[in-house]
Write a structure and sequence with these properties.
- The chain is α+β, with helices and mostly antiparallel strands.
- The strands form 6 sheets. A 6-stranded antiparallel β-sheet has the order 1-2-3-4-6-5, covered by helices on one side. Strands 12, 14, 16, 17, 18 and 20 form a 6-stranded antiparallel β-sheet that branches. A 3-stranded antiparallel β-sheet has the order 7-9-10.
């Protein structure tokens, strides 16, 4: 098979996109629908092996069940003589392996955004009973618009319906990204994909995989036995929250990882919000500057952001040192005020934006008292301007938490006089909280009240302006939904 050949009297091969152990992938043109596609062809040497043919066909069946923007779409599958092929949508861009070869590592926010999208695709697959089992950079494609799509479900298995998934003793996957349970031939679950995705995030940030060895067996052994390395050892600029979520996703025991891919997604979203807050004054982002490669002005700005170290008190304090200490204390007060939301680090005279000019954006769910998150995938619907869409909480038979909520971003500090909540399912109670960061801490700025179809909470911020506000649900039966949240006078 070569460029110029036509498969099934329909697909004209125009060039090779890549090769793997089982197949070649070609760029092809669909002469019937007049569009470009990707055509995956099983290697000739496997065409007579029923196990490889079945694995190849299984991939087509698995992805055909999954229609999601972060999963590559299957268009067709067929066989011509001894040639097995699958037709996919053509993703114009590169896989993550190619991006890493070009760039070594990615900026923090970009790495988080790509992994977040891949996690959404995998979460959807998990919801439909499919575990990927081979998450790695080569199997995540990023198109020219920055959209990430998971591909190659060739060794995927169905949860609870395929005995191959729970069969011990068989090791499948790629050693650099192998979960400990895969490495030891133990049962595989959704948590195994989470581990591999944690390894992928580590590599995107650090520029190398966490474990290296002289053989596949040596690498697999390190996944089982070695502690999770800190991303900060390779990238000191990575936020602590990001390092912690990588460590949890890569926990050796599946029970110690995030309870679901949705919970991992929620943690990624919180880290993304924090990384956005850490952006530098020129928009370059402190999280995107490696100390070893940062420009001199960038390194100078980083030094200027470093806190002044405390000095031990001696027998006497010379007046020059006392003056420096006073300056440091003044700087510390300013830093405290920034952290508390009283000074806008972006500049300005501290005047808050008027409520009528504030457009709110829902950025994350808020579930600090446990659980798997409160539908983080639907958060954006609460401020999308469409009252027909909504963000829901989980459905509770008994609501025994202090509360759950949704965080909205005013874009900059704003002293809101009120917050209006619209819902199609009234009857629950809530208060409004406010804070300087998307992840909290938050303080209460309204009285508790029952939520009707449209309810406005009067806010008392004590004259303070805050960037983030939380609709904090304090009581419900079943579930609560929020169709829209908007600022009010």
């Amino acid at each position: 098979m070569k460029t110029g050949d036509t498969i099934a009297d329909r697909y004209r091969l125009e060039g090779i996109l890549g090769s793997g152990g089982m197949s070649h992938v070609y760029r092809a043109h669909d002469n019937v629908l007049e569009r470009d596609v990707a055509l995956k062809v099983l290697h000739d040497r496997f065409s007579d092996d029923p196990s490889y043919v079945e694995r190849f066909r299984r991939e087509a069946r698995a992805i055909a069940r999954l229609s999601h923007p972060n999963i590559v779409t299957v268009i067709d599958r067929g066989q011509v003589e001894d040639c097995e092929f699958i037709v996919f949508e053509l993703v114009r861009g590169a896989n993550l392996k190619q991006l890493l070869d070009q760039r070594k590592y990615l900026p923090v926010r970009e790495a988080l955004a790509i992994v977040h999208q891949a996690a959404r695709g995998l979460a959807f697959a998990h919801e439909h009973g499919i575990v990927h089992r081979d998450v790695k950079p080569q199997n995540v494609l990023v198109d020219d618009e920055g959209a990430a799509k998971v591909t190659d479900f060739g060794i995927a298995r169905s949860i609870g319906r395929d005995s191959g998934l729970t069969q011990t003793g068989a090791i499948l996957g790629t050693a650099d990204y192998l979960s400990p349970e895969q490495a030891t031939g133990q049962p595989v679950s959704e948590a195994s994909d989470q581990y591999s995705l944690g390894v992928l995030l580590y590599e995107l940030l650090a520029g190398e995989v966490p474990y290296r060895g002289e053989s596949v067996v040596a690498v697999a052994s390190r996944h089982v036995n070695d502690p999770v390395p800190s991303v900060l050892d390779r990238r000191p600029d990575v936020p602590l929250r990001v390092n912690e979520l990588v460590a949890r996703a890569m926990a050796k025991g599946p029970e110690d990882r995030f309870p679901s891919m949705e919970a991992f997604i929620a943690a990624l979203e919180a880290a993304m919000a924090e990384a956005e807050e850490l952006r530098g004054p020129d928009g370059d982002g402190a999280t995107e500057i490696l100390p070893a490669v940062a420009s001199a002005p960038a390194r100078q700005r980083a030094r200027e952001r470093e806190p002044t170290p405390r000095r031990r008190r001696g027998r006497g304090v010379p007046w020059p040192l006392l003056a420096m200490l006073l300056v440091a204390l003044a700087g510390g007060a300013a830093i405290w005020a920034i952290a508390d939301g009283r000074i806008d680090p972006a500049g300005g005279n501290g005047n808050a934006a008027p409520a009528e000019s504030v457009g709110l954006t829902a950025v994350r769910d808020h579930d600090p008292f446990g659980g798997d998150g409160e539908h983080p995938e639907a958060v954006a619907r609460a401020t999308d301007g469409d009252p027909a869409t909504y963000w829901p909480t989980e459905t509770y038979t008994s609501f025994d938490k202090e509360g759950v909520g949704i965080v909205v971003d005013a874009g900059s500090r704003a002293e809101l006089g009120g917050l209006t909540v619209v819902t199609d399912e009234p009857g629950w109670t809530a208060v409004v909280q406010a804070g300087a960061r998307a992840g909290g801490p938050f303080e209460r700025v309204s009285r508790e009240q029952a939520v009707e179809s449209e309810t406005t909470f009067e806010l008392d911020t004590g004259g303070e302006a805050y960037r983030f506000y939380v609709v904090w649900i304090t009581g419900l039966e079943g579930r609560a939904i929020i169709n829209e949240v908007r600022a009010a006078d």
